[in-house]
Amino acid sequence: MQPADRPVLIAVDGRSGAGKTTLALELAALLRRHRSVGVFHLEDIYPGWNGLEDGRRRYWETVLEPLSRGLSARWTAWNWTADTDGERRVTEPAEVVILEGVGAADAAARQLLDAVIWIEADAGQRRTRAIARDGAGYEPYWDTWAGQEQKWLAADDVAGAADIVVQDSPDLLSPSAVLRALLDLPQLEPLLALERSHLPGPELQVERLGSCPDSAALFRALYGASSHAVWLDSSNAAAGRPVDRNAVSIMADGGGPLGALAEHRAGTTTITRGRVSVRIRGPFFRWLDSVWGGAAVQLPDDVPEGFALGWIGCLGYELKRETGGSDVAAPTPDAALIFAGRGIVLDHQRQLTYLLTLTHAAGLDEAASAEAARWREQARRAIGALSAGAPDGGEQDAGAPSDGGEQEGRAPSAAAPAFTLRDSRASYLDKVRRAQAEITEGNSYEICLTTQLAADASPGLDDLGTYLALRRRNPAPFATYLRFGDLTVASTSPERFMSIRADGWLRAEPIKGTRRRLEDPAEDAAAKAELAASPKDRAENIMIVDLLRNDLSHYAVPGTLRVSRLCAIESYATVHQMVSTIDAQLRPDASRAEAVAAAFPAGSMTGAPKISTMEILDQLESGPRGIYSGAAGYFSLSGASDLSVVIRTLVRHGSRLSLGVGGAITADSDPAAEWDEVRAKAFGVLSTLGAAFPD
């Protein structure tokens, strides 16, 4: 912990010519609005053109070490003209001291620093800027100095250890964006509390339009070119089917002046706003609580579902490391979210559209307000054209391939990917028997065993077109299309993991028990009745209900927990499902993020009891699940959240496709029937891609 009488020490590092001095001085000017700030330049202490290593040692011994103890730093400046030691100088311990220069954040220095900023810039631009700044006298020594930088950085990954990374040239740097990133750092929260208190709060603007255009065409029109975009798609309601558990679709991207991207991997959350990225080291759910801890905006009563913009995306199954599970690494992010400063809500039941934008309160950010106005106008034009029946505005035509395949439930033309199985039939059946042995020994009651199919993505595969074909084949209340750069998630999930209303009511709706729909009405009705009466499926469902009752009870007001539906049957285009509903009122003093964590991952994807069963699954399953079995949805600035279980989902990561499938194993499971269930659950996605189940 930092002593109260020592300064906040912030290093600005990077190779020569990256713009460290410019950023340090401008950042100091911003911080001086509320406190005293000192700046130390390492170029004043380097002992000559070959002195990077010795200069770094002089820096942390004579400057950084005393400042870290709240003492004056007395050091010897270098006389560059005489090429020898020069005058003695003193750097006083102001409230904040910014230390800038090559090596300001080397490994020895980082032990004493509160925050590290690294500037990454193009080598050619750096050389031009450095020589222009320091004169032609620097030019003969550029290669000498660059060689010393290279040698040092080959053994010391300062960029990887930095708290904040700034990309590109200094003329594009935004010191206010860097200050905003500093305020995100937990270790600086108490030290820069005054600056945090002066951040303008967000203000939500809502515009209601009296039409609800085709959602697929609208997403293409507004977000088709976005590198990071989300679509929480109530495709069941959008297709005109009776509204059951979700009548609202949400779409947004990470653009605009308030947009951001958050990605969590192995204990670090990286938040990127424009050219500035900040790394928050620590548990994901702790970070989530800090950005979604309470209601930040007032929501008009008219906006459905309590959605008021905020963080939207997905949480991977491997976040279980924070909720009682073991630490398993996955190639995909443990969480990927955008911060949506603008977005659209489609109310399919009332046939209304809402345009939502965030600006800073009291008009303090005129640029953000102007950008929000431009975006609303663009959205109005797109919605107006589609509502008026523009040629590309119909559901039937939106994104349709020229051969009509998408209307038939097939993805746009591309070579069918050749999937391989993580587990052979024999291997999976053996794992089913091993799971049953664990149940017999009393280590679990129910084990949700999964496997994975994987393939190289076919050249020309259209991710959005594939998702549109999936949603047309299997409309679902919690379908999702997420695009995060080289990560794409296309889900037709019917299962809600957990929702939290703005007023604090919790709801979980686990699904256990599935039957495929049959063409013959009498046979279909018989399959539905058989599911409703199945002792095995009811037992599976009730075990997960008990698990979720326990999960929700940790943060519920005593006496409010209830099961409002038990083993009800819901019918969709391709399946009948057995669904239960558990409700509870969140305690007023409880953390919403912790309430989500207490139930994560979904019990319907682990089994019961959860922690011991996750340990068994780690032993049985041959690799990480990744996004599959996690959750997708939003964490709104109103305090509301709605998350689905990521099932029936195709994930594309780079050139790799993956499809997770599995089922719940109980003591009386038939291993061969469990394998047949794996094949059946894979059929919808594989047939949409024109792919076959691997032998």
Write the layout of secondary structure elements.
Layout lengths: L7 E6 L6 H12 L5 E5 L10 H17 L4 E7 L4 E8 L4 E5 L6 H4 L4 E6 L2 H12 L7 H14 L2 H4 L2 E4 L7 H10 L8 H5 L4 E8 L5 H9 L4 E6 L1 H4 L9 E6 L6 E6 L2 E6 L2 E6 L2 H8 L18 E6 L19 E6 L1 E6 L4 E9 L5 H22 L32 E2 L3 H16 L5 E11 L6 H11 L4 E7 L2 E7 L2 E5 L4 E5 L1 E6 L4 H13 L1 H19 L8 E10 L3 E11 L6 H8 L7 E2 L1 H11 L10 E6 L4 E5 L3 E5 L2 E10 L5 H19 L6
Parallel strand pairs: 1-5, 1-6, 2-5, 6-7
Antiparallel strand pairs: 3-4, 7-13, 8-17, 9-10, 9-20, 10-16, 11-12, 11-15, 12-13, 14-15, 14-28, 16-17, 18-19, 19-27, 19-31, 20-21, 21-30, 22-23, 22-29, 23-26, 24-26, 25-26, 28-29, 30-31
Describe the overall structure.
The protein has 695 residues and is of the alpha+beta class. Helices cover 31% and strands 28% of the residues. It contains 19 helices and 31 strands. The strands form 3 sheets. The chain has a 17-stranded mixed sheet that branches. Strands 8, 9, 10, 16, 17, 18, 19, 20, 21, 27, 30 and 31 form a 12-stranded antiparallel sheet that branches. The radius of gyration is 28 Å and the shape is elongated. 49% of the residues are buried.
